[in-house]
Specification:
Blueprint: H1 10-16, H2 27-34, H3 41-45, E1 50-58, E2 64-72, E3 81-87, H4 102-111, E4 114-118, H5 130-144, H6 146-149, E5 151-161, H7 163-178, E6 185-189, H8 200-204, H9 214-225, E7 250-256, H10 262-274, E8 279-284, H11 291-294, H12 299-317
Parallel strand pairs: 3-4, 3-5, 5-6, 6-7, 7-8
Antiparallel strand pairs: 1-2, 2-4
Length: 322
């Protein structure tokens, strides 16, 4: 039985009417989706004063993880730039390092930030902590090469959307626990945080086609977790089950009222506050999952992006604590 649920924003509903939607995800459908070419990154770079560099980072298991580095062209390199370490979305089963890259590229232009984006391995081919470990090792490489990249190591921000938001939260926990590298802030955009998939909002967005439904979410999590029992799921993989959320950097979380992840995202912000941390939370009325990535020019999307940018402005210009 379908539960009552918040309505979509009228403008978003109109835009979404032309999008082919599904209610479930399968291995067969995933294979088809992965064959759809993504927008060439060169198209996204047209008209931007950006320098691009490609590197690969060796993992202890022998895998090589690609990183793309986008730096603003600037004559004066005497001042180190902030860095945005970007983790793409895609339910942990699809997407690549250029997915949703327009979001951090806006920060490159606005803040002069160096953007580093990572091609972490995807489930179901990679499982358990592999995805978050890939992201962490890419972050370590970035911090270790900060001087070479023109990055201020005190202003590294980790950001991600959807699955990338969940991975960003997991990497931030991992960096806190291992003592390195320092992360100035985390930006979690409609993050995928809780493998249990049992919140009210997850049940509300079940049984009908959507951008990301409870059934799709179950497929994504099962692809990552494999045979792991619920009690054995690490907090680095499913940050909602992490016991300790103290000692985290400044955190920004946003979501829509009309999406699966709404309640787990609100709960994560609440737990950060309970642990004495700072988290700014925005839940946008009528927003479906990833609304501002799909339709950035809709009024509610523009408001969400503007609010996120304003928060980052405050974070990047605030004096360091003494």
């Amino acid at each position: 039985m379908t539960q009552t649920r918040p309505d979509l924003d009228p403008e978003l509903r109109s835009l979404l009417a032309d999008m082919p939607l599904s209610s479930e995800l399968s291995l067969e459908l995933l294979a088809q989706i992965r064959q759809i070419p993504s927008t060439p990154v060169g198209t996204l770079l047209d008209g931007r004063a950006v320098e691009r560099r490609e590197v690969t980072v060796a993992r202890p298991d022998g895998a090589r993880i690609p990183l793309s580095i986008f730096s603003p062209q600037r004559a004066d390199r005497s001042t180190a730039a902030p860095c945005v370490y970007w983790l793409h979305g895609g339910g942990m089963v699809m997407g690549d390092r250029f997915s949703q890259i327009d979001i951090p590229l806006e920060w490159l232009e606005r803040f002069g930030a160096v953007v580093v984006t990572v091609d972490y391995r995807l489930a179901p081919e990679a499982t358990g902590t592999t995805l978050v470990d890939d992201c962490y090792h890419g972050l370590l490489w970035t911090a270790e090469h900060a001087a070479e990249l023109g990055i201020d190591p005190a202003r590294i921000i980790i950001a991600g959307i959807s699955a990338g938001g969940g991975l960003a939260a997991g990497v931030t926990l991992m960096a806190r626990d291992r003592g390195t590298p320092a992360i100035a802030a985390q930006v979690l955009i409609c993050p995928m945080l809780d493998h249990r998939n049992t919140t009210t909002s997850s049940r509300q967005y079940s049984g009908e086609p959507g951008v990301w439904t409870r059934e799709m979410n179950a497929f994504g999590w099962q692809s990552v977790l494999g045979d792991l029992q619920d009690a054995d799921v690490p907090g680095y993989v499913s940050p909602a089950v992490a016991e300790d959320l103290s000692g985290l950097p400044a955190t920004y979380i946003d979501a829509g009222t009309a999406e699966v992840f709404r309640d787990e995202d609100v709960a994560y912000a609440t737990r950060i506050w309970a642990a004495g941390g700072q988290s700014e939370l925005h839940v946008w009325a009528g927003g479906f999952h990833g609304f501002d990535a799909l339709y950035p020019h809709a009024r509610v999307s523009a408001a969400a992006r503007r609010t996120r940018n304003n928060w980052l402005t405050r974070v990047l210009t605030s004096p360091s604590p003494s």
